[in-house]
Backbone:
């Protein structure tokens, strides 16, 4: 990578990053929709695919406005999120766990994109590229709305999953409480027995003292 000395160079680097991310998501979202079993989550991925296709076009329009040929640049941050997904799916999670993971993965990706677009919009405005900023702001607004929807789905799935866990958690608390009561009873009984055995020598001593007198 050539040395960067100007804000515009950093801006172009980050614009290529987000272009790469959006292009990769166009490929990934159909796969994510296929992995999801929750109907609302599946629809969310399908709808976001259509949004992402528009995002690619908006970024391409931004490149055109800057009189630069559109090109992507590998983004280690996004590649890490994708690798995390691929490794987790090798564990063959149950359907509910898979859906919970997918909502979390989607949320992390949206946070990444929101941070990227927020910086790009601010820099575009600082550079006087108002049309570019407007194009990128459209993508930013979509990402924020998508994050809100994903988080809502994630909270619902979390509540539903917690219902299944509550009986097991209650059983563990009951078992733990029983063990604690049993341990306390044993300690109490041991203490009483120790007290009785400790008093016997004193009584015997008093009897021997009386006999000598």
Residues:
């Amino acid at each position: 990578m050539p040395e960067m000395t100007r804000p515009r160079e950093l801006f172009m680097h980050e614009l290529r990053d987000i272009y790469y991310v959006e292009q990769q998501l166009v490929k990934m979202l159909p796969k994510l929709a296929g992995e999801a079993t929750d109907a609302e989550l599946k629809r969310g991925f399908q709808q976001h695919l259509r949004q992402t296709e528009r995002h690619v076009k908006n970024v391409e329009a931004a490149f055109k406005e800057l009189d630069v040929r559109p090109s992507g640049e590998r983004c280690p941050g996004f590649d890490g999120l994708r690798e995390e997904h691929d490794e987790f799916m090798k564990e063959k999670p149950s359907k509910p766990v898979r859906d919970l993971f997918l909502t979390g993965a989607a949320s992390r990706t949206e946070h990444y994109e929101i941070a990227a677009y927020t910086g790009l919009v601010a820099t575009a405005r600082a550079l006087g590229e108002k049309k570019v900023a407007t194009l990128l702001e459209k993508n930013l607004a979509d990402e924020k709305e998508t994050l809100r929807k994903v988080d809502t789905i994630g909270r619902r799935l979390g509540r539903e999953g917690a219902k299944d866990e509550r009986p097991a958690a209650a059983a563990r608390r009951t078992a733990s409480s029983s063990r604690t009561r049993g341990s306390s009873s044993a300690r109490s009984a041991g203490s009483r027995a120790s007290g009785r055995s400790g008093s016997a020598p004193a009584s015997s001593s008093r009897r021997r003292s009386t006999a000598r007198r």
